[in-house]
């Protein structure tokens, strides 16, 4: 098995690249301001590409950077094929793409296809008169009582999925904010228009697209308007078009649903290449708090097999609230009680906090969580700033508290911008524990023991084998429930992962008889552990400690 990442040329988009990827999610606006106006931009991002490369990740996922009124941080798109003037120009984007590729980094952009901004010219035309040729590009009705089976997603701000348009005197349909009218995917012209958007970016050299909010593309009376067969038809159509011209392209589905409902988004390998595993994420947090492996094991055992060419994307945190839609009511209460006692930490059905503060800045827990992220099945996605343990600001409104400027160095703007701090698009985190003086890339880079340095090591070890990205998983069931142990296998490579989910030292006896004679080699230090024999294999682990062992057969 070739050593992923080492023998490869710097940039060679090959089929299945996403299976071995490590994704770094970032917002251009929040990353680095290269022009001094207080807003991050492509120039700044290009300047920081060496940092991203050095971290060891292999793909960058960019949040929406298109012209937009920014009422939903860019998920309200007003023009699909250009760049928000605050972030730069198409030329800047091209340079960024080239520079990223030169460093072996793939680029994933956002395709927000379910809806547009109400400022998009398509909607402006559609609402201008009932006879306008674009009228049918959106979903209209004279009353607001159709599709009652559809839930409201942004429960904190929206009362209905219909909003009255005073101009054309009718209601339009929207699953998210009322300023984000849903496109009508029953109209073939809409499908073609979105397919053209895909072509535009893929032709430029983008490697993959995250398909935002895919479960909601089509509406049907008497249903929840989620995951409908017609929605899958749309996705299959877009995939066919992609494959015709861009066979190395990739679709990553954002479908916040149960595993059995997400499974169809992979189709028979003819829909999306990847999909986020939403239900796994809160269960990792639960397992650590409960000090019990059950939530993780249960959800992964309920996760169906997916086609060979497909892959889960897994994550701990992202730009949204930590969503608690895919848990039971009791589990949700538990998560709120344990991780969001203060109501300001909650939004919609979730928790608006970053990783480090959620884990009380406990380095051991942060390491363990990242260890799980890097060793469970799927492609991991790291949210910018979490690699240095950035904090949040729960008082900023909406989900802005986890979208503050990246902290590059100490100082008022955290090295994010040369502008005055009050000019920044968002205040930097300023509390004493997480402010730039306390948490920043510059100081983390100087210490071989910082979280950043540790993350680099973790990523390097992860990349030393393809087993984590492509291998199977089997759970062991030791009597000690505080220990989560599993075996990952690919071809003749076997890796044993053992995690202590608890805050105290644990001993565990593992039944490793199937691997009798093998020698466990601890992967971060390369040290040999006692050979596996007939007897249960005894390991002791400190609080929140974990091991990855390559099982060497001699
Ligand atoms: C997706 C995005 C979220 C956005 C929503 C509506 O869920 O992740 O940030 O608000 O779509 O566009």
Please give a structural write-up.
- The chain is an alpha/beta fold and about 550 residues long.
- It is built from 16 helices and 21 strands.
- An eight-stranded parallel beta barrel has the order 1-2-3-7-8-9-10-14.
- The longest helix is centred in the middle third of the chain and has 17 residues, at about 190-205.
- The chain starts with about 20 loop residues before the first strand and ends with a strand.
- The site of alpha-D-glucopyranose (GLC) has 9 residues, from loops.
Which labels suit this protein?
554 residues; globular; Immunoglobulin-like; disordered N terminus; 17% strand; TIM Barrel; 16 helices; binds alpha-D-glucopyranose; five-stranded antiparallel β-sheet; Oligo-1,6-glucosidase, domain 2; single chain; alpha/beta; 21 strands
Topology:
Blueprint: E1 23-26, H1 28-31, H2 42-47, H3 49-55, E2 59-62, H4 90-102, E3 106-111, H5 121-128, E4 140-141, E5 162-165, E6 170-173, H6 188-204, E7 208-211, H7 229-245, E8 250-253, H8 259-262, E9 274-276, H9 280-290, H10 294-301, E10 311-315, E11 322-323, H11 329-339, E12 346-347, E13 350-351, H12 355-358, H13 363-375, E14 379-383, H14 441-446, H15 451-463, H16 467-470, E15 472-475, E16 483-490, E17 493-500, E18 506-510, E19 519-522, E20 537-541, E21 546-552
Parallel strand pairs: 1-2, 1-14, 2-3, 3-7, 7-8, 8-9, 9-10, 10-14
Antiparallel strand pairs: 4-6, 5-6, 11-13, 12-13, 15-16, 16-17, 17-21, 18-20, 19-21
Helix pairs in contact: 6-7, 9-10, 9-11, 13-15
Bound molecules: alpha-D-glucopyranose (GLC).
Alpha-D-glucopyranose (GLC) binds at residues 72, 75, 112, 176, 212-213, 254, 319-320.
């Amino acid at each position: 098995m070739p050593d992923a990442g080492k023998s490869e040329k710097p940039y060679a988009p090959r089929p299945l690249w996403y299976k071995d990827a490590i994704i770094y999610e970032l917002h251009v606006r929040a990353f680095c301001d290269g022009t001094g106006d207080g807003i991050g931009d492509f120039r700044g991002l290009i300047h920081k590409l060496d940092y991203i490369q050095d971290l060891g990740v292999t793909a960058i996922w960019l949040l929406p950077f298109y012209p937009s009124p920014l009422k939903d941080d860019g998920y309200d798109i007003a023009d699909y094929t250009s760049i928000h003037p605050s972030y730069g120009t198409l030329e800047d984007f091209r340079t960024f793409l080239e520079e990223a590729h030169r460093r072996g980094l793939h680029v994933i952009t956002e395709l927000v296809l379910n809806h547009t901004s109400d400022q998009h010219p398509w909607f402006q035309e559609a609402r201008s008169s009932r006879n306008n040729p674009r009228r049918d590009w959106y979903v209209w009705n004279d009353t607001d009582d159709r599709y009652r089976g559809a839930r409201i997603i942004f429960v904190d701000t929206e009362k209905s999925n219909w909003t009255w348009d005073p101009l054309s005197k009718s209601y339009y349909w929207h699953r998210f904010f009322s300023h984000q009218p849903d496109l009508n995917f029953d109209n073939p012209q809409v499908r073609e228009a979105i397919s053209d958007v895909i072509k535009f970016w893929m032709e430029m050299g983008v490697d993959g697209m995250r398909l935002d909010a895919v479960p909601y593309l089509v509406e049907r009376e008497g249903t929840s308007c989620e995951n409908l067969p017609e929605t899958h038809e749309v996705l299959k159509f877009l995939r066919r078009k992609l494959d015709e011209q861009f066979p190395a392209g990739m679709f990553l589905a954002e479908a916040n649903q149960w595993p059995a409902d997400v499974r169809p988004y992979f189709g028979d390998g003819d829909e999306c290449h990847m999909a986020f595993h939403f239900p796994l994420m809160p269960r990792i947090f639960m397992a650590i708090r409960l000090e019990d492996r059950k939530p993780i094991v249960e959800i992964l055992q309920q996760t169906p097999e997916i086609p060979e060419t497909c892959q889960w994307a897994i994550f701990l945190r992202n730009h949204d609230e930590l969503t608690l839609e895919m848990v039971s009511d009791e589990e949700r209460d538990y998560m709120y009680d344990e991780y969001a006692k203060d109501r300001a930490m909650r939004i919609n059905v979730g928790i608006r906090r970053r990783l480090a503060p959620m884990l009380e800045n406990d380095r051991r827990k942060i390491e363990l969580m990242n260890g799980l992220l890097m060793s469970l099945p799927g492609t991991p996605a790291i949210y910018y700033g979490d690699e240095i343990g950035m904090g949040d600001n729960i008082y900023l409104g909406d989900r802005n508290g986890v979208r503050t400027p990246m902290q590059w160095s100490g100082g008022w703007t955290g090295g994010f911008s040369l502008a005055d701090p009050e000019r920044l698009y968002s205040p930097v985190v300023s509390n004493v524990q997480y402010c730039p003086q306390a948490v920043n890339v510059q100081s983390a880079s100087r210490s071989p023991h910082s979280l950043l340095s540790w993350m680099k090591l973790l990523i390097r070890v992860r990349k030393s084998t393809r087993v984590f990205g492509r291998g199977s998983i089997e759970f062991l069931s030791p009597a000690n429930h505080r220990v989560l142990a599993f075996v990952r296998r690919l071809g003749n490579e076997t890796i044993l992962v053992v995690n202590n989910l608890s805050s105290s030292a644990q001993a565990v006896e593992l039944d490793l008889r199937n691997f009798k004679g093998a020698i466990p080699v601890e992967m971060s230090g390369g040290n040999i552990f006692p050979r596996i024999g007939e007897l249960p294999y005894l390991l002791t682990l400190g609080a929140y400690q974990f091991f990855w062992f390559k099982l060497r057969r001699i």
